[in-house]
Amino acid sequence: MKRRLAAATAVLGLGLISACGGSDDGAGATKEAPGGAFTFGAVLADTTLDPDLIPVRQMVVYTQPLYDSLTYLAPDQSVQPMLATEWKAGEDGDGPFLDVTLREGLTFPDGTPFTATTVLANVKRSQTLKQSTNAPELAGVTVEEAGPAKVRFRNPAGVGDLPRTLAGPSGMMISDKAIDGGTDLTRQSAGIGPYTVKTVQPNRIVYAKNPDYWDPRAAASDTLEINYLTDDAKLNAIRTGDLDVTVVPEQMVTAAEAAGYKIERSLGTENFSFSFNTEIKPFDDVRVREAVNLAVDREAICKGLFQGQCEPTGQFFAAGSAQYDPAFGLTAVPFDLEKAKKLIQDAGATGAKVEIVTVAGNQVMEQLASVLQQQMNTIGLQASVSLVAPPQVVGKFTAEKSVAVAVGASGNTFDPATTVARYVLPTGLYNPGGFRDAEVVRLAAEAVRETDQDKRTEVYRKLSTAVMKDFMFMPILTTKTSYATSSTVSGWRNPWAPAFPSFRGVKG
């Protein structure tokens, strides 16, 4: 693949942020190593390389080449060994525990050995670092040494979520020395990973192969580039053959195929949905929440807005996740405008003003917000849409609690327990009204206590449909993600969700 992206991405940013080892020539053109380079087009720009400060889980794409986690969540959603070679759950007089055996003989690039002490230091950092985004996932967790290469995790609530949780940022291991020294990891790394940081620019990070990595097959390319591009810039890069793999919107599929790319589509774990503040009128009334759910024709949206490349959803989990109950379908949310209008009238909500907030610039979310606005108005409400920056969506809906409805995408977490806690438990960030459904709370607790992953999946399928009893959540659809892959690429597998690719063994 030709490499013309450096100049293009430089236009998108304001200049060089920093260079962490290595250098850029001229306008930032990358010199290919003899082993070649692999270039990926990311769906989000990066903001940090610190595993404990990742603002949204989708940005883990930038830290994953640098930091091995304790476990690995494969594209088929199976949990596999990484820095941990095996784990076993149990329970004693002190409660549930997970015994983890660590891979031995490994050292960080700074010479620090990877041991049980490393795990303890990392858990403490994740739980106590100011603004840590891993702290919620590790709440209630303690860890103790059980030998030089063994640790025991405990959580009185249960440890069933830990094998998958520890495959994400919460399980990424930072060097003891870097932690002790308070090293700023926002633009440099201190992990055991198949790659090291070469250069960091706005919207573009270049990684170099780590020659001392414990699994030599993982870094199949000598250079890895991750670029964030706008749709227009991405289209130009595809036409010139400057990307090896990227996610493309449906309207760019034909152009990608014409440029010689192979297109593969897959459903993921991302469920586009609306969350309600059940404390704000008229959504404190279950009849209004049901009416809004019934007012949206999910199948028509899939056909009209997404050319059929999506799956309508009427439950909490996305159609591409293992926790989705295929038998439930749209049972709870059949399109029924007349019933929706009557429910609004019965609730005395006719003419009620409703503000919908969503992310400006996200085409899918803007389209869904517009459709919901139209349908709300059709059934008797007075709806408006506010397009704001991502932090403002969170601020207005969860902190200020000033708007009734927010558009989002649930399911972008390594373990379902995190998604459940965030959206449908009483203390959830995206449940600002604190709505409590006893059955959902019971099933959520049961799933965390259960340590058999197959049994956990069955519990979550029950929860996925139980959420719809009170219409506290409004699922819409799971899009099919289109991956454009160059004919020169080998080793690529579509990830379990769009923003969580694995570059292990991938060559451009």
Automatic annotation (TrEMBL):
Pfam families, sorted: SBP_bac_5 (PF00496)
Keywords, comma-separated and alphabetical: Signal
Cited InterPro entries: Peptide/Ni-bd (IPR030678), SBP_5 (IPR039424), SBP_5_dom (IPR000914)
Highest taxon listed in the record's lineage: Bacteria
Record keyword DNA damage present: no
Entries under CDD domains matching the protein: PBP2_NikA_DppA_OppA_like (cd00995)
Keyword Signal: yes
Domain Solute-binding protein family: 79-428
Signal peptide coordinates: 1-23
Name listed for the protein in its UniProt record: ABC transporter substrate-binding protein
